[in-house]
Amino acid sequence: MTDLVGFGEATLRLRAGRDRRLGDAEQFAAGVGGPERNAVVTASGLGADAVWLSRLPDSPLGRRVVADLRGHGVRTGVTWGDGDARLATRFVEAGPEPRGRTTVDDRSGAAFERVHAPNLPAGVVQEAARFHVAGPTVARSERAAATTESLFEVASEAGTTASFDLRYRDADWDEATARAACEALFPYVDVLFVSPEAAQAVFGEDGDPIEIAHALRTDNGFETVVLGHGDGDALAVHDDEVHEVDAVPGETVDEAGVHDAFVGAFHATRLAGSDSDGEGADGRPTDVGTALARGAAAAALARTLAGDAVDVSPEAIDRILD
Amino acid sequence: MTDLVGFGEATLRLRAGRDRRLGDAEQFAAGVGGPERNAVVTASGLGADAVWLSRLPDSPLGRRVVADLRGHGVRTGVTWGDGDARLATRFVEAGPEPRGRTTVDDRSGAAFERVHAPNLPAGVVQEAARFHVAGPTVARSERAAATTESLFEVASEAGTTASFDLRYRDADWDEATARAACEALFPYVDVLFVSPEAAQAVFGEDGDPIEIAHALRTDNGFETVVLGHGDGDALAVHDDEVHEVDAVPGETVDEAGVHDAFVGAFHATRLAGSDSDGEGADGRPTDVGTALARGAAAAALARTLAGDAVDVSPEAIDRILD
Amino acid sequence: MTDLVGFGEATLRLRAGRDRRLGDAEQFAAGVGGPERNAVVTASGLGADAVWLSRLPDSPLGRRVVADLRGHGVRTGVTWGDGDARLATRFVEAGPEPRGRTTVDDRSGAAFERVHAPNLPAGVVQEAARFHVAGPTVARSERAAATTESLFEVASEAGTTASFDLRYRDADWDEATARAACEALFPYVDVLFVSPEAAQAVFGEDGDPIEIAHALRTDNGFETVVLGHGDGDALAVHDDEVHEVDAVPGETVDEAGVHDAFVGAFHATRLAGSDSDGEGADGRPTDVGTALARGAAAAALARTLAGDAVDVSPEAIDRILD
Amino acid sequence: MTDLVGFGEATLRLRAGRDRRLGDAEQFAAGVGGPERNAVVTASGLGADAVWLSRLPDSPLGRRVVADLRGHGVRTGVTWGDGDARLATRFVEAGPEPRGRTTVDDRSGAAFERVHAPNLPAGVVQEAARFHVAGPTVARSERAAATTESLFEVASEAGTTASFDLRYRDADWDEATARAACEALFPYVDVLFVSPEAAQAVFGEDGDPIEIAHALRTDNGFETVVLGHGDGDALAVHDDEVHEVDAVPGETVDEAGVHDAFVGAFHATRLAGSDSDGEGADGRPTDVGTALARGAAAAALARTLAGDAVDVSPEAIDRILD
Amino acid sequence: MTDLVGFGEATLRLRAGRDRRLGDAEQFAAGVGGPERNAVVTASGLGADAVWLSRLPDSPLGRRVVADLRGHGVRTGVTWGDGDARLATRFVEAGPEPRGRTTVDDRSGAAFERVHAPNLPAGVVQEAARFHVAGPTVARSERAAATTESLFEVASEAGTTASFDLRYRDADWDEATARAACEALFPYVDVLFVSPEAAQAVFGEDGDPIEIAHALRTDNGFETVVLGHGDGDALAVHDDEVHEVDAVPGETVDEAGVHDAFVGAFHATRLAGSDSDGEGADGRPTDVGTALARGAAAAALARTLAGDAVDVSPEAIDRILD
Amino acid sequence: MTDLVGFGEATLRLRAGRDRRLGDAEQFAAGVGGPERNAVVTASGLGADAVWLSRLPDSPLGRRVVADLRGHGVRTGVTWGDGDARLATRFVEAGPEPRGRTTVDDRSGAAFERVHAPNLPAGVVQEAARFHVAGPTVARSERAAATTESLFEVASEAGTTASFDLRYRDADWDEATARAACEALFPYVDVLFVSPEAAQAVFGEDGDPIEIAHALRTDNGFETVVLGHGDGDALAVHDDEVHEVDAVPGETVDEAGVHDAFVGAFHATRLAGSDSDGEGADGRPTDVGTALARGAAAAALARTLAGDAVDVSPEAIDRILD
C-alpha cells in the first residue's frame, strides 16, 4: 500500500549565487521544486512509500523532473504534454538583507495548467494512506482546481486521509477565489495546514493562534489542524488537544522548501504508525506531538541546504531531537 | 547619424557544461542572445554606432537584456510588456560528438510576440545608414511579421539600406509561410544573407552557389547577396561581381552567434566607408571583398568563445587578416 | 519479472580535473562506479527493470551508493557491513597524452570483500531474465568468488541467462587464478564478454578475433560470445553466426564506464524482445546484431560524459543509429 | 545636459576567495573599482546621465575599464597612456574576523599619474550639473592634483556644483599634504563629504559630529557638508539645517565601494530635482534628507554584493525605504 | 639544531561544500591534515625549523603528503609502505547548525599502522629542542604506540622537551586503553596539553580547570600543563604559576586544525627564546603567557580558513595581539 | 653541495579561462612563473638540490613567491625590496586558434630591477655544480645585467658549470643590446641553450641547425650547445658529437614553462652523474643524449598542465621513455 500521494506542479528553480543578482548572475544553480514534490521527497527519505502525480512537458526538462523524483525514491504518475507545453520555471535571487529575495515566476503556459483528472491514475489515491495537495496548485488553472477536487473526492470515498496546505499569496490568487476553492475542497479535507496570514486573508480569522486553529477545526470538521506561526513555531489541534513545538534554532542557507519539509515529515511520522497502536513500525511514536517535533527538525535541516533540498535523513532528525 | 539598427527578439540562453546534459546539469551558464542582438553587438565592437529595437518583459530579466546591450555600447529602443509577459529562454546542451547539440526552446508567450510597430521609435530607422532583421524574427508572430514589414517600409522610404538574413529551420516556420514572408519583405531589401539550404527550401534554388546568388539577386533586384556555404565559406554577388572568402580555420568552442558575428562585421566594414570613396574613416577598405574577409575573421573569433559572445575587437580581426 | 540483475562492488571515484594531478588537485569530482553498477544503470535507462546486489558499509558513503542506484531507477538488494567496513575508493587522474591516466585503487578492507551469498536475496536472480557479473568482482576476495559461483548456480537452475564479462588486468589477479575462476564459472555462463587480451592471458587464445570467439564458444558451449577488439569495434558469435559492429566515432571525455555501457545496452536490447518473436515491446528489433549496434552507440555516448555517467537515453541512441 | 561628472583613477581589483589568502589563493575574482567610478556608476543606475574622466593605459586592461563604465551606462572621456603605462591594481584579501582585510596596492607607475588637464574634455564639466572628485585622487601625483584643481576651477566658473569627498588614510598622503590640497581646492567646493577621522586628521576638528559639520561648513562657505560617522550613520548640514539618517541594518558581504554608493545615490537624488522646485522628474523628493536616506539605502545594498558592485536599482532602494 | 619534531599520521581530508552533504556532494575539496602535521606546519610558519616523522604509502597520495609538508617548509623523515598500504582518509561534511558536522573516518589498513621505530631517523629527535605527539596517534595501532614510547624515550634521554597532547574521543580508544597509554608515556612528558573532558575521561579529574591542571602537573611532575577549556579559552600552569588567555573572538569557517594551530604556536613561541634569557631571537617574549596568547591568536586565524589551513603568519598574529 | 642554482625574476601569472578574454574574465587563475624559477623547480622534482636567487617585494605577494619555491623543494636566497617595490605580473589570455595568445606584461618598477649582486649570497653559486640564467633576466635592467655578469664570474672562478639560455624577443631587448650582453657573458658560459631565431637575430647565424650549433660552440668555446628547433625537436653538440631528439607528441594545455622544463630536466639529468663515470646515482645514464631525451619528455608533460606547472615526476618521465 502506498503511504503518501502528492499531486501538484514541478518548477525548475534557477538560483543566482548569493552575492549576485538576476541581472548579473553568470551562472544559475538548477533544481526541481514544488510544494507537493518537496513534501513527498521528505516523506520518502523518512521511509514513506510515496507517489507524485502531475502533468509535464515531453522534453529533456520534463524528463528531468521524473528523474529527480525517482532519484529520491518517489514513484511518479505523470501525463505528458505535447511539444509546445512548457515547464514552469522560477528565477531566484536570494541576497543577504536588506537586499533580500527577488523571484521571477515564469509559469504561464506550463504543461501542468492543462492537467486533466481522467488521465491521472486515480487508483493510486484510492490505495494510499494519505493524499496531499497545497494551495498554490489549486490556483494554477481551472483544470488544476477541478483535478484537485476530483482527486480529493476519490480520497474521501476511499477513506484516504486528505491533507490540504492552505497558503495565501496575492501573487497566486485573490481572496475570493481562495475562499471559493476552500469551500469546494474543505468537505473532503482531514488535515489542514494553515498560516495565521492565510487564515486572516481567506477566513478573516484573527487573534490567538490556538483559537484560530480550534475555530477552523470546529467549523469544518477537520481531524487535525496544523498552524505554523511565528518564525517556525507550530501548533496542532487534534482530538481537541493542542500540541505545540518551537522552531529548532539554526542557520538559514535557503528558505525554499522548508515548510514543505515540515509537512512531509509530519505525514511520514503519522504514517509510520498507521498499522499499529500508537507506535510506528520503527518503534518511533506516531502521535501528533511527535509529528510536529519531527516536522520542526526536518524544517531546520532543510533550512541549512541550498535550493529545494528537503531529503533529510531520519538519523539527522533523531540527532536533533536527542 | 546611427550606423546600424537591428530589430528582433532577445533570448536568455541557459547552457549546460560540456560534459553534462539538460537532465543532469547542476549549473547553467546564462547569457543573452538573438540574431540581431548579436549582429549589432559585433558591429558596435567594430566601431559602429548601433541601436537595437525590441519588446521585453518588465522584469529583472527584461532589464538584464537592456543592460547587456548597453554594456556592449548599443543603445536600445524597447517597449515593455506587462507583468505576465515572459522572456524567451533557450536551454542548450552542447556535448562532444556523437552526443552533439540538444536545445529546448521555450519561447511561447514571450513579450516579443506582441511587439507593435507604432510603439517603437521608427525615427531611429529613418536616420540610420543600415537596418537589419533576421528571418526567425518574422516567424515569431503575426505582430512580429507586421512590425518587420512596417520598419522595412520606413527604411526603404528613408533610403536606409535594408538587410535581411534569411534562415530556414523547420522548427521556425514552414516553407509556405517563409515564402510568403519573403515575398512581402523582398521589395524593401537591399542586402540579403542566405544559405543554400534556405534558398532551396524557400525558393527551390539549387545547384552552384554562385548561380544561386546571382539568380536571387537578379530576380529580386537586391544590391548585394551574401551566401554562406560549405562550413564557413562565403561568397557575395554585388555590382555583378563575385567575391569569395574561405572560412578561417580554428577551433570551435561554441557555434552560437557565429553567423551573426559574420553579419555584424560585414555591415560594420561596409559602414566604415559610407562617407568616403572606397576607404573607411579608419583607413580600412570598405569594399564587399573586405567585408567578407572581416566577416569570416569575426566568425572565427566568435567560434572560440562560449555562448553568444560576439564582441570581437578590430585588433583581433586585423591580427587574423595579417 | 525483473529483466536484469547485476552483482558486484561499488567504488567511490574521486577524479582530479583534467589539468591537475593526484598530487596537486584541490578538488576531486565524486561519483559512484563499478562494472555491474554501470551495466544495470545503462540497461535501466534503456527501459530494463534492473536490480543490483552488493555489500556496502553502513555509512553516509554506503548510503550514497544506494541513492545513486535508486536515482537511476535500479532497485538494490544490499547487505550492510559493520562499522569498520569501508567503501572502495579510486582516485583518478586522467590527463592528456603523454601524461595519460594514473589511478590509485584503495579497495583493501572494503565491505564487499566479506559479501556472503546466504545474506543476499537470491530469489531476485531466480526471477530475472538475465544475471550479470564482471571478472574483477570475482577477483576481489574468496567470498566474492564463492558468492558469484553460488548466484550463477541459482541462475542456471532457474533458467536465467547468465552473463560474464571476463576482463584481465594483472592488478586484479594472476593468470592462474583467473583461469581457475573461469573454469568454475563457465559451466553456468550463457553469454561471455571478452577481449582479445583476456582471451590470450587466460586461455592462450591468439590470432583472428572471429576464430577466438568461435573457439571460446565451441569449447565452453556458450550461447553467445561478444568480443570487443580494436578500439571500440566488437563482434559476436551467436547461433554459429558472426555479427560485427564498428566503433561509433566521436570524442573521448572520459573512458570510465564506456565498456559497461556497451554491456548494459547489449543486454537491454536483447531483453526488450524476450517475450516476443524477434521484435521488442517497443518495436525495436532484439537480435544480436542490433544489440551490438546499440551497445556501440551507448559506449560512444558514455565516452562524451565525465565519470561513470552511463545513463544514456534511448532517444540519443536512436539519433546515432539513424 | 550631463548630470554628474566624476574624475579619478580606475583600479583593477583582484580579490581572493573569503577562505583564502593572498599567499595561497588559486583564483582571483577581477573587477574594476575607484571612488569616482563607483559614484558615477551608482548615480547612472539611479537615472543620472553620467560621465567619467580619466587616463588609462592603451591595453586590453585599459579598454576593460572603459567597457566596464560603458556597461553601466556611463560615458567616458579618457586619454590613453603609451605602451609602458600600467593600470593600477589592488590585491584584496577579505577574511572573516579576526583575520580581516589585507590589501596590496600596486599603483606606482600607473597611467593615471601622468594625467594632464589640457588633454581632458573640460567642456563636459562645464555643461554638467555636478562634478565630483575624491581625496585619494588628488594624492596620486602632482599632475593628478593639478588636474583636479583645474577641473574644479572650470566647474566653479561654469556654475557646476563641485563635490569633494575628503578621505584620509596615512597610506595615501600625510596630514600636511592633505591640508594643503584642501586649502587649494576648498574655495571651489560646494558639497563636502567627510568623516570624523578625516576632519580630525586634516583640520584638527574633534568632538560632536554636528558641530564638526557646522564648523567645516561655516569656515569654508560650503553649500552642504555630509558627514558619515559611526558605522554607516550620516548627517548633513545644509541651509543651516541638520539632516540625519541611520545606517540601514543588514549583512556585509564586501565593504568595497559602499561609501561611494552612498555618494553616488546622494548626488543622483539631489539631481533628480535640479530642474524643478523640490520634486524630481520621477516624482521623488530631492531634498537633502531624502538624499541621505537614499544614500544609506544604496550603501546597504552595495554592502551585500561582492567587489565594487554598486549599480543598485531604484526599485531596490524604494523597497528598503518603504 | 631542529626546533620542533612531530610524529604522527597524515590524513587526506575530503570536504563537501557547506551546503552539501556526504551523500550528494559533487565535489570534495582535498587537503592534508593530522594533529602533529598541523602543529609543525604552524610552528614552521612562525619561524621554527620543523621536522615531521611518519609512515606513508608509496603512491601519488603518499607523495602528496610529503609535498604538502615540504611546501610549508617542514622537512620529513618518512618510511614508505609497500604497494597495498593505504593513506588514511576522512570525509567531512560541515554544515550549519542544526545539521552540523558529520565525518566518515576511513583509516583502517593505513600505512601508518605499521610504523616501526627502528626505521625512523631517531637522531632527529635527539637533536631537537622539542618533540610532540598527540593522543590519537598512540591509539592507532600497537606499533604506533610502541613507536611513540620509543621516541619519547629518545627525547627524554637527549634532553629534548617532550610534548603530549592528550585528547579523548570514544571513537579513538576506550578509557582504559587511554589510561594505560598515559601511564606508559607520562614519565617522559614535559609539556601536557589536555582538555577538561579528557582529564575527566582518563583520570577522573573533575571540577575547576585550574585545580585540574595543578593536580595533573603535581601528580606527574610535568614542567607545563596547558588546559584548553570553555570555547577556546586556555590556561597553563608552569613553575607553579597560572597563566590564562581568553579565546580571540571571530568567525568560524572550519574548526579543523584549530587546536593544533594553538599547540604549534605555543611551541614556536616558547622555542623562539630557547637560547636567550626570556626574549626570543626576534625580540618577542617567550614566556608561557605570551605563548598562550600567540596560541590563541593562531587558533583564531586558523578558524577563518577552510580545511587544515594552519600556516598563519607572525604578522597576522602580531596584528591581533596589538 | 648544491646541484643547481638559478638567478632571475619571478612573475605572478594571472590567467583568464580558455573561453574568456582579458577584457571579460571574471576570474584569473594565479601562479608563479619565471624562466629560472621553472628550471630549478623541474630539476628539484627530478632530485636535484636546487637554489633560486632573486629580489622580491616585501609583501604578501613577494612572500608567496618564496612559498612557491619552497613548496617545490627549492631553497631561496632572496633580498627584499622596500615598501614601494612591486612584483612583476603578467596577464595571460590563451584562447583557441585563431584567437590565440594575448599577454599584458606589467613589469616596470618591479623589485627585481634593483637587484644588487653584493646583497645576494654568492657563496651558493661557488659551491654549486651548475648555475643557470636565462636571457630575459639580463634584459630587465642594468642592475640585473650587472648582477648576472658578476654571478657568472663567481661561477667561472669556482669551476661551477655556467648555463645560459639565450632567447630573443623584440619585446625584451633589441638585437644590439642582446649581442652586447652575449659578448659580456659568453666568456663565462659552459652550456648554451639557443633557438634558431635567437641565433639569427643576435649572431646572424642561419641555415642548418647542426651547423649553427657547431659554429656557436666553436666560436665561443662552449662545452655544450643545445639548440631547440622545429616544434619541440632539439639537438646538442657536445665533445664534437651531435645528439638529437624528437619532440614527444601529445596535447598542449598550456605552453607556459615548457621550454624551462626542458632546461631543468636537462640539467638534472646531467647532474645526476656528476660524481660518477657516466652513470648517475640512481643508475640512470647522465650523458647528453639522455639529458636531451629526458628534457623532451619533461617538456611534453609540462605541456599537459595549466600555467607554469613544471614539477614533473621522474616516474612520469620514465613512463614516457619506456
TrEMBL record, chains A, B, C, D, E, F:
<dbReference type="Pfam" id="PF00294">
    <property type="entry name" value="PfkB"/>
</dbReference>
<feature type="domain" description="Carbohydrate kinase PfkB">
    <location>
        <begin position="1"/>
        <end position="309"/>
    </location>
</feature>
<protein>
    <submittedName>
        <fullName>Sugar kinase</fullName>
    </submittedName>
</protein>
<dbReference type="InterPro" id="IPR011611">
    <property type="entry name" value="PfkB_dom"/>
</dbReference>
<comment type="similarity">
    <text>Belongs to the carbohydrate kinase PfkB family.</text>
</comment>
<dbReference type="InterPro" id="IPR029056">
    <property type="entry name" value="Ribokinase-like"/>
</dbReference>
<keyword id="KW-0808">Transferase</keyword>
<dbReference type="GO" id="GO:0016301">
    <property type="term" value="F:kinase activity"/>
</dbReference>
<keyword id="KW-0418">Kinase</keyword>
<dbReference type="InterPro" id="IPR050306">
    <property type="entry name" value="PfkB_Carbo_kinase"/>
</dbReference>
